[in-house]
Amino acid sequence: MAGMLPRFKPAVSSLFRLGVPRSFVLGSRGVATAGLTRAQEVAGQANQKDYYDQSSHYDLIFKSDNIRLGYFPHLAEGSRSSHELNITESGYALTHHMMTLMQLTPESTVLDMGCGKGQACVDVARTAGCSVVGVDLSGTNIARANELKSLNPDLRLDFLEGSITDLPSKLKSSKFSHIMTVQAWVHVHSDLDAVLAEARSVLEPGGLVVVEDFCSNDRGIVTEQAMQHFYKRLHFDKVLGPAEWQRKAETAGFSVEHVEDLKDHMAQSYRLMAQAAGDLEILSADGTPLQENYRNTVDIIDKGEVTMLLAVLKLPA
Ligand SMILES: C[S@@+](CC[C@H](N)C(=O)[O-])C[C@H]1O[C@@H](n2cnc3c(N)ncnc32)[C@H](O)[C@@H]1O
C-alpha cells in the first residue's frame, strides 16, 4: 500500500490545491497519511461527523471496511487457542462473536446503530440470511456502505444517514428483532437516554440489543493523559462508567442479560494499531505521532481508566 502513496512531502498549502482534506497530514518519511481532526477539541456531533467523514487513516490501519477495535479469541476466558489475530481479522471476529450472542435466523430483522461503512451489516446479512438496516451519522461512511450494498445485490441491506439519538423518520414505525451496535454509542453518552429510548422504540417485545461500547471507570477519574490521548482525539465529551451505563439501560426498560469486559481486547487492538500507525508514520492533527496517542491509550486501559464492554440487553416480551 505504501508504494501507491506519494514519496515526497509537499508544502501544506499545496495540499489544498490538490483537493486533499484539510486534516490530511504527511509523515516525516513522506508517506501520505491521514490526520485526525480539524482541531483537537471536544465538541458535539458536528465535529464527530466531521471526524468520521474525514478519517481516511482508518483505511490504512484496519485494512477493511470495519472501523473498529477487534475481538481476539485467544484472550477469551477459557480459550485454549494461542493463535493471535491481526487487527483486520479481529474486526471480523468481533462480528462473529456478537452473532453467537444474537442467535439470528433468516427471519430476523437487524438494525445496526452507527454502522460505519456497513461491513458488519454485510457479514451478518450474508451469514444469517436475514435483513439488516444500518444507520450512521457520516455521509462518507453511508456512501461506502451503499457501494457494499451494490456489490452484494443478493443481500437484504438498507443504509440510511442519520443520528442514533433521533433515528431517521423512515425507521420510526419499523420494528426489529435485533439491534447491534459497535463502538458508536460512546459518541453520544451525554445523550445515552435518547439513544436507549430510540432503540426501545424500534425493537420488538422480547428483542435483543447486542452492544459493544467504550466505557470510562466508575471512580469518575479522567486524567490529563486520558483527556489528551483518548477523549480529545475521538471527540468524546462524556464517557460513562460501566455501572452508570448499565443503570441507564435498566432505567430505559432493558434487562442486562450478559456483560463481558473486553479490556484486554481493547488494549491488544491499540497495541496493534500503534504498531501500524508507527510504520505508516501517521500524525494527529496537532502533530503528535498517532502511535504516541495509541500507546498512551494502552496505558490508560492498563490503569483501568477506560474499557470496552460487550452487553446483551433484552426488552420484556
Ligand atoms: C468507531 S466507528 C464504528 C463503526 C462501525 N460500527 C464499525 O464497527 O465498523 C463509530 C461510528 O459511529 C458513528 N456515529 C457517531 N455518532 C453518531 C450518531 N450520533 N449517530 C449515528 N452514528 C454515529 C460514526 O460516524 C462512526 O461511523
Automatic annotation (TrEMBL):
Molecular function as annotated in GO: methyltransferase activity
**A Pfam short name:** Methyltransf_31
Q: Which InterPro entries match?
A: Erg6_SMT_methyltransf, Methyltranfer_dom, SAM-dependent_MTases_sf
Key word Transferase present: yes
What parts of the sequence cross the membrane? Answer: none
Keywords of the record: Methyltransferase, Transferase
Q: Does the keyword Manganese apply?
A: no
Limits of the Methyltransferase domain:
106-223
The name this protein goes by in its record: Sterol 24-C-methyltransferase
Q: Where does this protein come from, organism-wise?
A: Symbiodinium microadriaticum (Dinoflagellate)
Name the gene behind this protein. Answer: ERG6
